[in-house]
Structures are given as structure tokens and as C-alpha cells.
Amino acid sequence: MELLHQTKSDVLRTFLSLSGVSIGIFVVTVSFALVDAFSRSVVAGFDHFGSDMIMVERFPVISDGGSDWSRYAIRPQPSADDYMVLSGGFNCKWTAFAGASGADIVYGGKALRDCKMVGVQGAWQHLVYSGVCAGRAFSLAELSGSEAKAILGAGIVRELFGVDVRTAAAEACQAVCGRTVRLDGRNMTVIGVLSYEGKNIINLYATDFAVIVPFATAERIAGRDNLETMVAVGPKADLRDAATGEMRRILRASRHLKPGQEDNFALNTMEDLCRQTVALTSKITSVGLLVALFSLLIGGFGIVNIMLVSVKERTFEIGLKKALGAKRKRILLEFLAEALILSVAGTALGLLLAWGALSLIPSGVLDARLTEGHIFLAFGVAAVLGLASGVVPAAQASRLNPVEALRSR
Q1: How many CB atoms neighbour CB 69 within 10 A?
Q2: Cβ pair 210, 118 in contact under 8 A
Q3: 79 near 228, Cβ under 8 Å?
Q4: Which of the residues 113, 115, 167, 406 could staple to 319 if both were Cys, CB 3.0 to 4.6 A apart?
Q5: Do the Cβ atoms of 29 and 237 come closer than 8 Å?
Q6: Residue 260 · residue 252 · CB < 8 Å
Q7: What is the rounded distance in angstroms from the CA atom of residue 384 to the CA atom of residue 28?
Q8: Residue 212: its pLDDT value, please?
Q9: What is the DSSP string of 334-399?
Q10: 3-class DSSP state for residue 404?
Q11: Do residues 159 and 152 touch, judged by C-beta distance below 8 A?
Q12: What pLDDT does 201 receive?
């Protein structure tokens, strides 16, 4: 086709014109791939923790617009007393208490700095994504005391002991149990190993580099004021709203809050967390799509420019074709096809760039990938863009007077 000769004669102009299409398709495709991956992660986290979980924390997940967040910072941390009154205050499936702080862990001359030490009490396994894959969990006596016992995350086990729980034999993981590590200078006996978690968008405590210990032990190591604490409650099925009201009543009475006095605690749910996270991602996606729209418009104008130049430089050929009997419709379809080819070429380059960018995301961080739906969407956009960009030049070419066109040379 004559278009190929035209593009070869000015490669730079063609490249610059198509770069807008490529960038637009790249942004659109990557945005949708990331949103789809994010949605899968949210659903997985939502299903794992359950939408009915209620968490007592200092900060609300969703706050009134314009609220002064500094006033939340002066609230008291959820305490063991809060946990106790909620545990015995009403009928629920389970309750848990946890507090987190940074800590250093050392074994055999190897050290990991600023790991996450999580002190737990009650039904703590509802608060983590991973389960115990080797060794055992805490006994009730260990949870209620200050035993020097610890359960290690998969990342810590890999770094300190050279054992990858994803691929190692069960005996190798089991061999880690019974060893002694130093946690912020205190000897701790390893009683269990957690399964590999990877990166999850919806989680409460990322456990791959976490050390799980009884809450009293964490309090003794870090100090009460240095633990970011939380009480979690799992109400019975379909009773979340009633349980939330009952929890508020119990906590207000326990904390001696007067009628009309503002709550000095927040009751959050996994549904709140998911909704807030989705809203944030939607805003980011909207910005990305706006950038993509401008890029596609620029790319469309680039295609129009190439096609108009092509019409001008091929006026004699168009006149010759018409003189030999070519119909107006044929000329119109020829130029529309060429505009479509340019758009598809830019789209193919954009998809290649998107595939390369998504492949750079480390395994386990986010399962973002190109799907058939993304590819069909990209080429659908390309078809619309190509046809829309080619209408004016194609119409101009089809309306040329053959006599005047032949005199152009």
C-alpha cells in the first residue's frame, strides 16, 4: 500500500504520531489489568477475613469529610480491659486482641531489623492471612501468660534459617521449631512456622516478616505504650449491626463515657476497609484514564495529520485511479483501512509495552496480567480511533476531482 511508502519516507513523524496511540493504549490496558488484579485481591481478603468482622481501633477507616485526624491520635489504645469486657459482654463467635510493634530478631549471627512483632490473645488466627504450616499454635495457657514462645513468618524463616516454606520438605520446616532466637535481646523458643502469605492488599498483619508472640510477652518486650493495639470480634451470622450497637454500648460504659460525649474509639469492619480501598483505587484509575484519553486524542490527531499529508502527496495517484474507473467508495474505504492499520499498529506497540510493564511486577505482589478481555478492549478502541481519525482524510480523498487531481503534478 502507498501508506507503507509514506511512513518509510518520514519514520520520525510516523513514530511521534503513533506514540500517542501507544501511550494511551498502554495506560488503559495497564489500568484495567491493575484494577482487575486489585479486585481479585480485595475479594480474596474479603472472603478470608469475612465482612462481619468488627475491629475496635483508635482511627476510623472512614471518617467524616473535614474531620481533624489529630483528635483521633489522642484516643487511648484499645486495651486488654476492652478485650475482656467484650469477650464476656455478649454472645459472639470469637474475640481476639492484638498489638504490633517493630522488633529485631537474631539467629546464628544473622539479624533482621524492624520486623513486625505481633502480640496476640484469644482467637488470634482470625487476624492473619497465614496458617501454621509446621509446629503448633499457642496453647490457651501460653496465650494467657507471658511465655517466651514465638511463631515465625515464612520470610523470617527463609532469611534466618535458609528454609523456603513454599518448596522445602515438611521435615526442614519442622526442624526450625525448637530453636532459640533473640527477639529484641530476649531469648524466644520457636514453636511454629506460618505458611507463605505473599503481598495482600487486604490484610491486618502482613505475616511473612512477623513474629507472633503472646500479648503479655509483646507488652513486656516493647512496653504497653509502644504497641498499636486492636480488639476484633466475630459476631454471629447476620447480627453484625446489632453486635456493633452492643459493642458501642459496652465500650462506652467500660470507658465511663457520659451521654452525649463522643466515642473515644472506632468500630471498623472489613467491609469499610474494602470500600475505602476500592474508592481510592477508583480515583487513581480515573486519573489514569483521563491521561489515556488525552494520549488517544493526541494519537488520533497524529493519524489525521499523517492521512491528510498522505492525501496531499498522493493527489495525482488518486486522480489516476478515479480516471481509470475507481469509485468514490473504494477510495474512501482504502483511506479508512490505512487509518485503521496505523491505529492497530500503535495499539500493538501499546500492548507490548503493557505486557512488559506488568511482567516487571514481582511475583506475589499483585497478580496483574493481560487477559483476552483487555486485548479485545484495546483493539476495539483502536478500531474506533482509526475509523474516527480516518473519516475526514478519506472523505477528502474520495471527493477529489480526477481532472484537477491529475493536474497537480
Answers
A1: 9
A2: yes
A3: no
A4: 406
A5: no
A6: no
A7: 15
A8: 96
A9: HHHHHHHHHHHHHHHHHHHHHHHHHHTSPTTT------HHHHHHHHHHHHHHHHHHHHHHHHHHHT
A10: helix
A11: no
A12: 63
Partners of 106 in the β-ladder: 111, 182
User: In 3D, which of 27, 19, 37 has the Cα closest to residue 377?
Assistant: 27
Give me 361's grid cell. 511486577
Q: What is the pLDDT of residue 5?
A: 52
Q: Which three-class secondary structure state does DSSP give residue 137?
A: coil
**Other Cβ atoms closer than 10 A to 46:** 15
* Residues written for the chain: 409
Task: Give the pLDDT score at 408.
Answer: 61
Q: Is 217 helix (H, G, I), strand (E, B) or coil?
A: helix
3-state secondary structure of 310: helix
Cα(99)–Cα(212) distance, integer angstroms: 10
Residues with Cβ within 8 Å of residue 361, at least 6 apart in sequence: 368
Is residue 244 within 8 Å of residue 53, measured between CB atoms? Answer: no
Phi and psi at 233, nearest 5°, equal: -130, 135
Bridge partners of 298?
Answer: none
Amino acid 11 reads V
Q: Which helix (H) or strand (E) holds 237?
A: none
| Cα distance between residue 289 and residue 163, in whole Å | 43
Domain boundaries, the chain: 2-44+280-406, 76-264
* Residue carrying the nine cell digits 453484625: 240
Q: How many CB atoms lie within 10 A of CB 276?
A: 15
For residue 368, what is the enclosing H or E element? none
State the pairing for strand pair 180-183/149-152: unpaired
Cα separation, 279 vs 179, in Å, equals 45
Scanning 266-327, the segments in alpha helix (DSSP H) are 270-313, 315-323
pLDDT tens by residue, 177-203: 999 999 998 999 999 999 988 766 666
Q: Amino acid identity of 36?
A: D
Query: What's the DSSP call for residue 129?
Result: S
Dihedral sign of CA atoms 315, 316, 321, 324 in order: positive
Give helix 328-359 / helix 372-398 axis angle, nearest 10°: 150
**Alpha-carbon distance values, 401 to 234, 314, 319, 323, 333 (Å):** 79, 13, 7, 9, 17
Q: CA–CA separation, 274 vs 280, rounded Å? A: 10
In this predicted model, what pLDDT tens digit does every residue of 67-125 receive, in sequence order? 567 788 889 999 999 999 998 777 788 999 999 999 999 998 899 998 999 999 999 99
Longest dimension (CA), the chain: 100
Query: Grid coordinates 515464612 are at which residue?
Result: 154
Phi, psi for residue 387 in degrees, rounded to 5: -65, -40
Contact yes or no for 205/125 (Cβ under 8 A): no
